[in-house]
Write a sequence for this structure.
């Protein structure tokens, strides 16, 4: 299939359709609305389900219902709508039905604005609803990656019977660039054994997140945690550019990661040994990979389009092995490569290079 | 006297065994957790009987509410989902839209539907979702231990209206059947009660019609059922049935609030 010029939101929608999406429920919100609009035309055309819900509360519960029947189902929204979905997300997680959620993030808090931001990082990676659960979170940095992540999201959701987020920002949703769509896959003809299809010649199936009795609910939680462990072991994804010899590593995801790439190129041109580490899965977070890098780098710079959210995960990962500096823009502002470069130069001056220790671990020599 | 009877050879009496009542196949053979005298169980039984009679058990999917009926999926031997508080109509919409051949019903309390879930039920009715809804109005938040519900009567003493429902502060109770009947998308909206044999029989008929509407693809059907809560009303089971009759029925008149033409033709076809 050839490359076409595609807008991020439309590309995600069409990728979902081609991944065998059977039902879409959503509510308009900028900067993801083109996604819903594309679905409104495409899904009925293919004889599949599209419904504009009365609210995000209703949309996520429609997703919950359709997911209970074992089909591929999805919704999309942005910060304010994701907040409204949280109760439903928690029920979906507790019932272990697969579903894909696209969050095209905008500036917050409150109504905030409609410009690109990464301000939902904590919300979707750590507290997507009440109770102990964590969705898989994929963070595309290009339209092509948004397409690939959407397809992957459905496969992971089915494989682990879990929630998967595709977390883009307004830039990813709105940008147009050449990308290749996947071939069309038809929705599955058969349903999983647990699905609600009617108790016809089999014992009844129940989809519920209610487990009365501490033992039963603890058993569910243990199962969910074991699944998360498996996900952590098998599904970590990241991109590392020029990190092998880097003194300073920038850690950034999505659009911030893409801009940081330009800053890295410029820094290298100026003779600075700078690399980029771009988490592709925000959960599971590539902690051990970062920890290994930390031993070799003299400092890390975390760049985000928020007031500092992923930086906490980076600090946890490197666990004091290297200093971690944060640079962020908020409210829909996006850092330019020059701003990032300025931060790199500051860091480079502030921290001398690490000396190799006998056991291969680096040590940080602090400067007065 | 005894002797005289003994003298005659006793006639042989033939006892023909005749089953007069059986648990509907649509109901699981387990006890419910409902309080003595609560009519949730009775309403379950009526729904179970109708599911059997219509032969739809194998293709029915129930959607339980959050409320006393939260365990409905245990009590019915059909596939079942458990929705978030008030969201059963949205969940049922999701199920029915991808599984149009299944018979999907929700079962919701007054707090679930008329308070937290108002938007979802209004919109399911407005879209004319082809689902069947049972609205069990017991004028109280049963499961949380008896707080004021959107349908609690003026002056009704509850856990959160200790001096009686003050309608100046909280507004008047909501009449859901009347409200939903006003929506063009709804096909069948009626109110029934279960406080005596006569009303129970009428309730069962309405339950049957509400399923038949869905089977014919004729749109949104809702049966509101006035139901008792002796525990939280702090009454005996018998008194609570009288309370429905004397206090609830006058404010919530029984009757048919919307029977669309498409439903009338269904009935005319006999079944
Ligand atoms: C979001 C949310 N809010 C509140 C509750 C607590 N809650 C559980 S049941 C219930 C009221 C149920 O009353 P009703 O719908 O009338 O059903 P009944 O128990 O009377 O049959 C409430 C408020 C909840 N589970 N979820
Ligand atoms: Mg109630």
């Amino acid at each position: 299939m050839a490359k076409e010029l595609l807008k991020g939101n439309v590309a995600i929608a069409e990728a979902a359709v081609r991944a065998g999406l059977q039902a879409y429920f959503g509510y308009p919100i900028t900067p993801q609305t083109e996604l819903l609009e594309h679905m409104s035309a495409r899904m009925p055309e293919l004889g599949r389900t599209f419904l504009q819900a009365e609210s995000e509360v209703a949309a996520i519960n429609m997703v919950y219902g359709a997911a209970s029947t074992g089909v591929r189902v999805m919704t999309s929204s942005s910060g304010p709508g994701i907040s409204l979905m949280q109760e439903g997300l928690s029920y979906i997680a507790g019932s272990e039905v697969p579903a894909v959620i696209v969050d095209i993030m905008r500036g917050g808090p409150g109504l905030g604005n409609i410009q690109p931001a990464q301000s939902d990082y904590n919300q979707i990676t750590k507290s997507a609803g009440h109770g102990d659960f964590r969705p898989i979170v994929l963070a595309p940095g290009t339209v092509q990656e948004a397409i690939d992540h959407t397809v992957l999201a459905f496969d992971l959701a089915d494989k682990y019977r879990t929630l998967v987020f595709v977390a883009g920002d307004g830039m990813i949703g709105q940008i147009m660039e050449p990308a290749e769509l996947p071939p069309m896959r038809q929705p599955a003809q058969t349903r999983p054994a647990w699905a609600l299809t009617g108790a016809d010649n089999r014992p009844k199936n129940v989809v519920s997140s209610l487990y009365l009795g501490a033992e039963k609910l603890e058993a569910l939680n243990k199962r969910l945690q074991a699944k998360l462990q498996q996900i952590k072991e098998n599904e970590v994804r990241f991109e590392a550019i020029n990190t092998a010899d880097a003194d300073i590593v920038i850690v950034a995801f999505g659009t911030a990661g893409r801009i940081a790439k330009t800053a890295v190129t410029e820094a290298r041109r100026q003779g600075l040994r700078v690399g980029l580490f771009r988490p592709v899965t925000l959960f599971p977070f590539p902690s051990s990979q970062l920890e290994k890098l930390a031993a070799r780098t003299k400092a890390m710079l975390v760049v985000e389009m928020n007031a500092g959210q992923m930086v906490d995960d980076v600090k946890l990962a490197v666990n004091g092995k290297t200093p971690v500096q944060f640079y962020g823009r908020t409210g829909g502002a996006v850092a330019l490569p020059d701003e990032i470069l300025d931060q790199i130069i500051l860091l480079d001056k502030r921290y001398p290079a690490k000396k190799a220790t006998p056991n291969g671990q680096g040590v940080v020599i602090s400067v007065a | 006297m005894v002797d005289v009877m003994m003298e005659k050879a006793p006639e042989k009496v033939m006892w023909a065994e005749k089953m007069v009542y059986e648990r509907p196949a649509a109901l699981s053979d387990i006890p419910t957790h409902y309080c003595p005298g609560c009519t949730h169980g009775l309403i379950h039984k009526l729904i179970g009987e109708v599911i059997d009679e219509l032969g739809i058990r194998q293709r029915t999917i129930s959607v339980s509410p959050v409320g006393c009926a939260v365990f409905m999926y245990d009590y019915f031997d059909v596939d079942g989902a458990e929705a978030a508080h008030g969201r059963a109509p949205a969940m049922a919409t999701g199920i029915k839209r991808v599984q149009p051949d299944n018979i999907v019903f929700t079962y919701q309390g007054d707090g679930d539907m008329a308070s937290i879930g108002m938007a979802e039920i209004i919109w399911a009715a407005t879209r004319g979702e082809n689902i069947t809804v049972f609205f069990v109005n017991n004028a109280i938040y049963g499961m949380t231990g008896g707080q004021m519900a959107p349908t609690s009567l003026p002056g009704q003493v509850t856990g959160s209206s200790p001096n009686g429902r003050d309608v100046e502060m909280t507004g008047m109770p909501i009449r859901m059947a009347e409200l939903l009947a006003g929506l063009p998308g709804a096909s069948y909206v009626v109110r029934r009660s279960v406080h005596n044999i006569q009303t129970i029989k009428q309730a069962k008929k309405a339950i049957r019609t509400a399923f038949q509407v869905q089977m014919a693809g004729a749109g949104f059907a809702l049966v509101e059922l006035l139901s008792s809560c002796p525990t939280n009303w702090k009454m005996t089971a018998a008194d609570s049935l009288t309370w429905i009759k004397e206090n609830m029925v006058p404010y919530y008149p029984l009757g048919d609030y919307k029977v669309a033409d498409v439903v009338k033709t269904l009935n005319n076809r006999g079944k």
Summary: The mean pLDDT of chain B is 94. Residues 154 and 172 of chain B are 7 Å apart (CA to CA). Chain B has one domain: 2-269. DSSP finds twelve helices and seven strands in chain B.
